[in-house]
């Protein structure tokens, strides 16, 4: 179950992924689910996986764009936290989503994280070339 | 934690946001997380933030369109409930998401709200010109 | 509330919907919420509802495409489980979402299911021609 549900705001000009990492560290969250993020970004960089193992391309998107939603997890690889987020962005003329590399918040980002009552882990997978969830 | 998870259906022809407000009021939900919404809409109106403070444009989309997902929250500003939802819509030829202003349900909307064990609040922020989440 | 939150990985080459059905059966999950899915697909088939009752079209999408997110539910219709998922896909050049008919996992799919402490049900609705959620 979710032993605690954390809801916090990331503010204008802040880097979204870095702030989420900072908040997780500050609150001691090492295992959890990114239940949602909504708001808007001034700009964002998304990664798209092109081929295996681990070959992705990064694309920058200028804003303002709405953060329509986001999902992901907080896990540990050995003792290091890994926050893995996919995010959906949209404006009137463009809609794209992918792996969140970085993003600057425009008006706000309202982040919801469900902290788990057990520890999630990742380990390197040579087939995908990525740090994959361990069941 | 989520002290209760509410799952309910909004039916054909009903206005989605208004029905969610009505259900929250009826069930006494004043603090919660919109975990998800899926279904389809006959039409929808989305808002896109263009510049600060608070300058957005509304765009109407004719359906039918799939509701691919939605995220958001139920909060109080002073004693008034505010339900803030971003929604993702898609057809075969168009995919857009944004701030849900209103939408008419086509076949169904399956709404999931996690009711929180503590109260979320909003207050007016003069920089963004919007009612922002208070941490 | 969510009595248990299940987090598991679906692996490269596996069919996503079938594997989720198998995991739910194996874990005895008959009532729950698909809180999220992220990862990537090699290909996918989405359904779009065109008219009522129950007239949809299926469209195949070649990948690789990012799984940006997914939402849905695990319910029973009489004694048979029904897993209803809407999924959002995106590449650099295309972004679409809809009802998940099937998909082959590319690198991974990280699935989060919140198991409910009460039973959700569906029944056939002659107006929509679909199995709809019973409140």
User: What proportion of the residues of chain A is helical, as a percent range?
Assistant: under 10%
The largest pleated sheet of chain A is described as: 5 strands, antiparallel
Low-confidence stretches of chain A: none
- Largest interface (CB < 8 Å): A-C, 37 and 31 residues
Strand content of chain A: over 45%
Oligomer: homotrimer
First-last Cα distance of chain A: 16 Å
Number of helices of chain A: 1
Anisotropy-based shape of chain A: globular
Strand-and-helix sequence of chain A, N→C? Answer: EHEEEEEE
Beta-strand segment tally of chain A: 7
| Average pLDDT score of chain A | 97
Structural class of chain A: mainly beta
Rg of chain A, Å, rounded = 15 Å
In short:
The structure is a homotrimer of 135-residue chains. Chain A is mainly β and 135 residues long. Helix content of chain A is 9%, strand content 70%.
Q: What would you note in describing this structure?
A:
Three copies of one chain form a homotrimer. Chain A is mainly beta and 135 residues long. Chain A contains one helix and seven strands, in the order βαββββββ. In chain A, the strands form two sheets. In chain A, strands 1, 2, 3, 4 and 5 form a five-stranded antiparallel beta sheet that branches. Chain A has a two-stranded antiparallel sheet with strand order 6-7. In chain A, a hairpin with a 4-residue loop joins β6 (121-125) and β7. Chain A is globular, with a radius of gyration of 15 Å. The two termini of chain A are 16 Å apart. The mean pLDDT of chain A is 97. The interface between A and B is medium-sized, with 30 and 37 residues.
């Amino acid at each position: 179950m979710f032993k605690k549900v954390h809801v916090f705001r990331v503010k204008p000009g802040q880097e979204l992924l870095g702030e989420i990492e900072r908040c997780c560290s500050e609150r001691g969250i090492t295992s959890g689910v990114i239940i949602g993020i909504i708001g808007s970004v001034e700009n964002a960089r998304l990664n798209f996986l092109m081929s295996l193992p681990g070959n992705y391309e990064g694309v920058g998107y200028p804003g303002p764009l709405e953060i329509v939603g986001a999902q992901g997890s907080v896990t540990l690889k050995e003792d290091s936290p890994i926050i893995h987020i996919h995010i959906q962005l949209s404006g009137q003329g463009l809609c794209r989503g992918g792996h969140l590399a970085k993003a600057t918040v425009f008006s706000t980002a309202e982040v919801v994280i469900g902290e788990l009552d057990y520890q999630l882990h990742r380990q390197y997978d040579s087939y995908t070339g990525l740090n994959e969830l361990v069941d």
